[in-house]
Amino acid sequence: MPVILVSSDNQDFKVDKEVAERSILIKNMLEDVGESDSPIPLPNVTAAVLTKVIEYCEHHRNDPVQVPEETDDPRKRSNDIEEWDMKFMQVDQEMLFEIILAANYLDIKPLLDVGCKTVANIIKGKTPEEIRKAFNIVNDFTPEEEAQIKKENEWAEDR
Amino acid sequence: MFSRALYLVSRSLASQLHSRAPPDRGGDSDSDADAEPFNTLDLNTATTRALALPEILERIGSYLDRPSLFNGLLVSRHFYESFLSVLWLSIQLRIAHPSFPRILEQLEKNLSRIRDLTIEDISTGNVGQTDSDEDDDEDSVDDVGGRGAVFRGYLHRLRSIEILSRNDLSLLQCLTLDCGFPANSASTSVHILNSCQGKFSGLKHLDVGLLSNTRDRRYIHQILDTYPLLESLRVVWSAQSPLLTEDQGPLEQERQHPTKRLSLRRLHLTGLQWPEQEFLRLVQQCPQLEELTIRGASKARWGWTISTVDRFAEFCPHISRLHIDPGYGSDFEDALLARLLETLSGLRSLHVPRCDLGPETFKVLKDRIGQMEELNVAFTRKPGVDGRKLVQLMTRARNLRYLDASGVSLDPWLFYVTQQQEEQQQQEPGQDAHEDIPEWGRIRPQPSAPVTSWACRKLEVISIGFATLHVNTRQCQSIYANLSNLPNLRRIHILPNHFPINFESGLAQLALLRRLTHFDAHSTEKAISEDVIKWMGTTWPKLQVLRLYIDGKEKRALVKSWLRDVGRDDVRVEAD
Question: A113: burial class by Cβ within 10 Å (0-12, 13-18, 19+)?
């Protein structure tokens, strides 16, 4: 049973219901709307990003649906990324964050997790200045504030 | 503060623009700033929009280790807020650790951020058991080791308990109390729980390791009363501590309607035995129990009957994971195991090491193995024929992910028979080479009976041992062949005495196991060659740990250097 998704730039995407329902947002919309065939507008997602999201959902269409309570336990979080997912995420940084935003909006937790793990891997091993450069962030601390933060949190520095 | 932020932003903008300006342009910075568009700091990029959302930044932070979080704190105020929450989400207080005072300073003001707290206290040991290497130096003036360390630990313990007991701890969800050293009467775990009585009102997970000063089972009921939202409880009693309070006997006034602990899903009790009445009294209160672990003391009398099992299944119909370890020399009969399997219809995971696994259990297992995901029958006390039955079970175990049959003497010929039967099915039945097969090995299923290879293709962890002292090359070929059919294997543990790990015996067949992370054959008592080590390093991309028979530090360094030669510095080499 196909479902039609419409991107913000008015491109139509025909996908199987099973694939579309990897997005909890879409799943809930479909349940509310019922038997109707009308296309689902996604005003926050452009065609380029939606293409990638659909590609992910197609590949993972048979994955078991994750139970929320298991994945929210911080101690059980694994940092592994599957090979296919790793290749899937080899995109430029803007697209990476577009995918994260889309996964967040569409409520596709596994995709959001993969995106966030990828960003975490970018951050690992970098100094604060390198992180700022990577993401174009302004340093809004005074040197005094920086020193105080370092002192208060030095217990975390090498554990 | 707002104006300071603006000042900083404009200063940083100006400096960026200055660096882009061509060197021959003069004039003041303002005109330069007007001329250049601000697209170097376009605030509408996906990067900026995503990182501006605290929930996204926190999620990213949850995948970072502490040092990375520390660096992230210094990036910007927004990062600081998000990462600080993540940093304090899960905290380990190691009371005896030299760095403890630094975290203690920050503890009180950040207590409300903590959801998962572990308190480790190994400072309750005797003098000379903490960070002192100078036990023999009795005249040491400075209190660096020995008594000094114990005293410091004592003070730290008091200080942390003081902080905990005067603050609101209702947001804490997980608490682990690991008092480490059991010998002392002043058990930190009990001290903390008593001092903070009722403070952890939101607690969902409690782990009390090494409860040392009470064997009173009523303590469990007390804990369950105090923390009604508890979903999982783990209590480990120390086997070594002197008994300071023994069981006070049955509870006063047997309650007509025992309290129901409706949230409790997981219960883990190690170190005490649970006679029938005590056990039933406890589980009757936990109708939603899904997971139960009981590890008894050695040589304990269980005294369970079939009726115990029936009533247990009636009280706890949702059990899906069961772990019963009666300890060495204790009794837990075959009939009881069989009954557990028959009555607990939702059972997916069964760990029964050191139990009397026998014919009755196997009969029931034959029907139930198809739905089992985990099976642990390690060191079961009736080996021999059960090995054959165990292997036959594997032909039906299509959902099994975890198998521990270590200590069960598997007849290696069973594997040989399985494979040979397959070959016979493909070719015409020819003359079997009988000369290598011992008498009892020739007893095999009729060729007409369908023989399938192991169905447990979901198997991820396998732990096996063999009956014979030496497993020869031909036996090994088929064992490796069977293992190579299990593409999801992540961990292999082999416990025989002489198990060949070389190419002649078919090791290369394991090249198919691309997900292997642990290879453990440490008791093989045969040194492994350089070729094999390098092959392992190159063939198994996800390999993390190699546990092998390696005599001496020099040999271990040599193995590490072979792995380094093939670019596998990351593999941990463990030896006995």
Answer: buried
- The Cα of B66 is separated from the nearest Cα of chain A by a number of Å equal to 6
pTM given for the model: 0.76
CA B251 – CA B454 distance, rounded (Å): 51
Tens digit of each residue's pLDDT (9 = 90 or more) over B331-345: 788 899 999 999 999
Task: State the distance between the two ends of chain B, measured CA to CA, in whole angstroms.
Answer: 60
Q: Enumerate the H helices of B344-437 as residue ranges.
A: 359-368, 385-393, 412-426
Neighbouring C-beta atoms of residue B213, cutoff 10 Å: 20
Q: CA–CA separation, B24 vs B11, rounded Å?
A: 22
Residue B177's φ and ψ, nearest 5 degrees, are -115, 110
Instruction: Please say whether the beta carbons of B408 and B377 come within 8 A.
Output: yes
Among B50, B74, B116, the residue with its CB nearest the CB of A101 is B50
Contact B4 A98 (CB under 8 A): no
Beta B491-494 vs B461-466: how paired, if at all? parallel
Q: Which residues of chain A have pLDDT under 50?
A: 70-71
Q: What is the mean pLDDT of residues B157-172?
A: 88
How many C-beta atoms surround the C-beta of residue B50 within 10 A? 24
Does B45 sit within 8 Å of A97, measured CB to CB? yes
Closest CA to B322 of B306, B339, B307: B339
Q: Which residue of A has its CA nearest to B64?
A: A120
- Chain A residue whose CA is closest to B61: A120
Tell how far CA B335 is from the center of its chain. 30
User: How far is C-alpha B389 from the geometric centre of its chain's CA atoms?
Assistant: 29
Is pLDDT of B1 > 80? no
Looking at residue B201, the DSSP 8-state letter turns out to be T
Residues 6+ apart with CB under 8 A from B544: B517, B518, B570, B571, B572
A83 vs A97: CA distance, rounded Å: 20
In whole angstroms, what is the distance from residue B492 CA to residue B519 CA?
A: 5
- How many C-beta atoms lie closer than 10 Å to residue B41's C-beta? 14
Question: Given CB atoms, is A78 within the 8 Å cutoff of chain B?
Answer: no
